[in-house]
Automatic annotation (TrEMBL):
One of its GO terms (cellular component) is plasma membrane. The keyword Lipoprotein does not apply. It comes from Columbina picui (Picui ground-dove). The gene is Pcdha11_0. GO terms for molecular function: calcium ion binding. This is PCDAB protein. Keywords: Calcium, Cell adhesion, Cell membrane, Glycoprotein, Membrane, Repeat, Signal, Transmembrane, Transmembrane helix. Residues 429-453 are annotated as: Disordered. Gene3D superfamilies: Cadherins. It is a single-pass type I membrane protein. It comes from the Eukaryota. SUPFAM superfamilies: Cadherin-like.
C-alpha cells in the first residue's frame, strides 16, 4: 500500500534582519530644526513569526556623546533630530544602527548612517587687537606699524572668507601680513596740533549671503614733538615811554603763542631791556633820559622748552616823550597801546584792538584841535578893532629860557592899541615876516609903553 506523509518544516531563527544598504549617507544644514527627518531605514527578515519581527535601535555614535541628538523609531526605522546641529562643533556624525529580531536566540543586522552637517553663515567675523603701540609721535614716518590685529570667522568656505577695512580711511590703513593677520599702519603724516587723537574702527565682513559684519575700535593718541616755533601776532609793536619815568616801569606786555603742548609749548622771553622770563612783561631797568635818544628798538626773543628749542622774535619800538605830549599820549594812544599789546590766539582780537586804538587817537586829536580853534576864535573876535586901528605893531620874541615844550624858540606878535589909557594884550602866532633889522627898531615904541598897557 501507499502512504502520504505531510512533513511540516518548522521555522528556526536562522536569518538575521538584512538592511538594504550597508551605509546611509545624509546631509543636513546646521540650522535644521528639532524633529527634522534624517533618513528612513529599511530592513527585512525572511524568517516567519516572531523570528521575522525586529526592532531598530541606535547602538553607538561617533563622536561619542552626541547620541542624544538623534532618535530612531523602533518600528519604522525613521531617524529624527532631537537637538540642534553645529557645523563649527561637529561637521560629521556617524551612527551605528542595529535591527534585532525576536527569535530565540535573537539575531541582528547592522548598518551605519553618516550625517554630514552643511555649514551656514551663522557666525560673524571676530577682530582682536594682539599688539598696540601708542601713543604715536606726530613725526612718525609713513608706514609705521601702530597695531597688529587677528581676524577669524568660524564658518567655512565663502562664509569664512573675511574682508577687512579701516575707517576713517586716512591717515591709517590695513596691510595683510598672512592669513587672518593684519597690520594697522600709518598712511599719512600726523599733526598733533590739528588732531591729537584718532578713534580708528577696523571693520570685518564675511562672504556669506547675507554677509555678517564685525568691528573693533582702536584709540590712537598722538604725542607731541617740538615742530612749532612760538609766534607773535605781529612783528613790530610801538609804545610811548615818558621821560624820567621810574626804573622798573612796565612798558608793555607781549604775548606769544606756541601750539605745542607741555614743555614744547612753554615759552620764555628775553631782550635787551628787562623782560619777564615767562610773563612777557617789558620794563625799564632805569629811568629813561633825553640822552638815551628819542627812540629805542628792542628785539624780543621767545623760546620754547622743546628739544631742540625753537624761537621767534618781535620788535618793540619805544618812543621817548615828555610834558604835554606824554599826558596826551597817556589819555589816548599809550593806554590803548598797552591794552592792545595782548596777543590772543588767531590774531583776530589784536586786529580789533588796533582799530579801536586808531579811532581813540583820532577822537582825542579832533577834540583837542576843536578846543584850540574855539579858544582862538573866542579870544580873537573882541580885539578886531585893535588889530585894524592905528598904531605900529611891535614884534616881541620869547626867550629860549621860557617854558615852551622841547625848549624850542617861539615867536609871538604883541599889538598895542593907541588912545585908551589901558588896553588888553593879545598874543598870537605871527602870520607875517618880522620887519627888517634897523627899520623895525625905529618903529617900535619904548619899552615903558608896554608896561603902561
Amino acid at each position: 500500500g501507499t502512504m502520504e506523509l505531510v512533513i511540516s518544516v518548522l521555522d528556526a531563527n536562522d536569518n538575521a534582519p538584512q538592511f538594504n544598504q550597508t551605509v546611509y549617507k545624509v546631509q543636513l544644514p546646521e540650522n535644521a530644526i528639532e524633529g527634522t527627518l534624517l533618513v528612513r531605514l529599511n530592513a527585512t527578515d525572511p524568517d516567519e513569526g516572531l523570528n521575522k519581527e525586529f526592532s531598530y535601535s541606535i547602538v553607538s555614535s561617533v563622536p561619542a556623546g552626541n547620541r542624544d541628538l538623534f532618535r530612531i523609531d523602533p518600528k519604522t526605522g525613521e531617524i529624527r533630530l532631537t537637538g540642534l546641529l553645529d557645523f563649527e562643533v561637529v561637521h560629521l556624525h556617524e551612527l551605528q544602527i542595529e535591527a534585532r529580531d525576536k527569535g530565540t536566540p535573537p539575531l541582528s543586522g547592522h548598518c551605519s548612517v553618516e550625517l554630514e552637517v552643511l555649514d551656514m553663515n551663522d557666525n560673524a567675523p571676530e577682530v582682536w587687537v594682539t599688539s598696540l603701540s601708542v601713543p604715536v609721535p606726530e613725526d612718525a614716518a609713513v608706514g609705521t606699524v601702530v597695531a597688529l590685529l587677528s581676524v577669524s570667522d568660524r564658518d567655512s568656505g565663502a562664509n569664512g572668507r573675511v574682508h577687512c577695512s579701516v575707517w576713517p580711511a586716512a591717515p591709517f590703513g590695513l596691510v595683510s601680513t598672512f592669513a587672518g593677520s593684519y597690520s594697522l599702519v600709518l598712511r599719512e603724516a600726523l599733526d598733533r596740533e590739528r588732531v591729537s587723537e584718532y578713534e580708528v574702527e577696523v571693520r570685518a565682513e564675511d562672504g556669506g549671503s547675507p554677509s555678517l559684519r564685525a568691528r573693533r575700535g582702536v584709540r590712537v593718541p598722538v604725542s607731541d614733538v617740538n615742530d612749532n616755533a612760538p609766534a607773535f601776532a605781529q612783528a613790530v609793536y610801538t609804545v610811548l615811554a615818558r621821560e624820567n619815568n621810574a626804573a622798573g616801569a612796565e612798558l608793555a606786555r607781549l604775548w606769544a603763542r606756541d601750539p605745542d603742548e607741555a614743555g614744547n609749548g612753554l615759552v620764555r622771553y628775553s631782550g635787551p631791556f628787562r623782560v619777564g622770563l615767562y610773563s612777557g612783561e617789558v620794563s625799564t631797568a632805569r629811568a629813561l633820559e633825553e640822552a638815551d635818544g628819542p627812540r629805542q628798538r628792542l628785539v624780543i626773543v621767545v623760546r620754547d622748552h622743546g628739544e631742540p628749542a625753537r624761537s621767534a622774535t618781535a620788535t618793540l619800538s619805544v618812543s621817548l616823550v615828555e610834558g604835554a605830549e606824554a599826558a596826551l599820549a597817556a589819555t589816548g594812544s599809550l593806554s590803548s597801546s598797552r591794552a592792545g599789546l595782548r596777543l590772543e590766539e588767531g590774531g583776530a582780537a589784536t586786529t580789533t584792538t588796533n582799530v579801536w586804538l586808531v579811532v581813540a587817537i583820532c577822537a582825542v586829536s579832533s577834540l583837542f584841535l576843536l578846543a584850540v580853534v574855539l579858544y582862538g576864535a573866542s579870544r580873537w573876535a573882541p580885539r578886531a578893532a585893535v588889530l585894524s586901528g592905528p598904531g605900529p605893531a611891535t614884534l616881541v620874541c620869547a626867550s629860549e629860557v621860557g617854558s615852551w615844550s622841547y625848549s624850542q624858540r617861539q615867536s609871538r606878535s604883541l599889538c598895542v592899541a593907541d588912545g585908551a589909557g589901558k588896553s588888553d594884550l593879545m598874543v598870537f602866532s605871527p602870520n607875517f615876516p618880522p620887519p627888517p633889522g634897523p627899520a623895525a627898531k625905529e618903529t617900535q615904541p619904548e619899552p615903558p609903553a608896554l608896561l603902561d598897557t
